[in-house]
Amino acid sequence: MENSLGLKSTSIVSNFTLIILPKTDDRKPKTQTKESTMINVDELRARYAAAGHDHVFQYMHDLSDNEKEELIEQLSGIELERLASLLASAQAEVTDDSLVEPFLGTVGRSSDESIIKSAGNLGLQAIANGQVAAVVLAAGQGSRLCYDGPKGMYDIGLPSGRTLFAMMAQRIKKLGQLAAATSSDTTAAINLPFYIMTSPLNHAATVAYFEENSYFGLAKDSVFMFQQCMLPCLTEEGKLMMESRGKVAMAPDGNGGVYASMSQSGALSKMKLQGVKYLHIFSIDNALVKPADPVFIGYCLQQSADCGNKVVWKAHAHEKVGVVASKAGKPCIVEYSEITKTMAEQTGEQGRLVFGAGNICNHFYTLDFIHNKILANVGDLYHIAYKKIPYCDPATGETITPTANNGIKLETFIFDVFPMSEKMAVLVVERSDEFAPVKNKAGSPSDSPDTACAMIFALAKQWVLSAGGTLVEDKDNAVCEISPLLSYAGEGLESVVQKNMACPLRLEL
Description:
Blueprint: H1 41-50, H2 65-76, H3 80-91, E1 100-102, E2 107-109, H4 113-128, E3 132-137, H5 164-180, E4 194-198, H6 203-212, E5 223-227, E6 230-232, E7 242-244, E8 247-248, E9 250-252, H7 258-265, H8 267-274, E10 278-283, H9 294-302, E11 307-313, E12 323-327, E13 330-334, H10 341-345, E14 357-366, H11 367-377, E15 383-387, E16 391-392, E17 399-400, E18 407-411, E19 424-429, H12 431-434, H13 449-466, E20 471-472, E21 480-482, E22 501-502, E23 505-507
């Protein structure tokens, strides 16, 4: 029997446990210490005055010594010249949707058994050779989930209490074991590099969380955390906005900031030293994501792709999700708000939507593509977003929370780089296998912790049945959870499952 990695299930799992454990204790994060630096304040003032932003010093005389130091340090880190260039590029942005047409490249499907087998083996070999790294976009907070902390630390409600971070880290650990089994040296451990993009708001909490949980079994030196870049907020006239008397208003530069953030943090240099050639970048809020998915990696390698996108087919014509398309002959993502009704409803063979390849923020890149194409051109990809931004009233010095859009944030999207690709690969996967978004608070009818748990339980049941087991379900409790440490994608369960296993069911290594 073959599993979803395309490998025969030959591994024997003899020491598994059927248990319910207490949830992990998420302790409060450690605090960071700030190193003071010596900065020439007169030169800093002159630089800002020359750029027309001398208003940032308006309340300097009212600040405490510590507040003055913090403001000066912040101002010294803002690249005024680059900021002006990004704003000018964003203002010059021109779009022509008349050039949009169906995606011109090859589209593979994970339902194709030949792809699963051949691509899965190729991807595992690349992992075994140390050529693959997983990168998760985890800069967000769990505010929409009514959770005060990093989204990755959110407990979605599984019996195990596993958080999003825990599930991803344990899947990576299991994948390393599967890759090691394909190596000529089966005793060698494969420490697949795991890179985590945090934000200044949640970085310390994320670091502390991984430390307190012993990196969920991963080697400490295989986990690298780097912070997302921040950009100043601007007035509609292009002036820096002050959030308070002693602080410039700052905002994340969008998930497309991952490229510059990896470069500036030293993450890309570290990857190169590790021998990494291929990246799998994905969002934190997908509870069914397969980090460094060997089938996806292998498929992109088979296609000689410099860039790849894993997608799910739209559930219906007007599902609110961007789709893969081509514009002026180049691959792109067309947002659901930009696609016309006619385009959305257009069908082709067997009534399948022509514009149906739904984007789920799940991407492959070669390191060469990031170095040679993206980093050289990323400054031209920023967009203007009009937002409600708290600001310091210049007359009173008090912070005002606006009720209408009053300023500009500059941001870029991770898929903005797709048109740079010389050959992009697209792989369609089953939603029930790989896409369980956790975006809305518990109790919401869609994309919630509840719907994600239900999908995880359903997939686990499918794995049990595929491995030869049978289930006796309690109609009031259909819970079925399988530890990622026991199986990455349904493999290796033949020696674990039994006939008439009762739900609620939990299998742990």
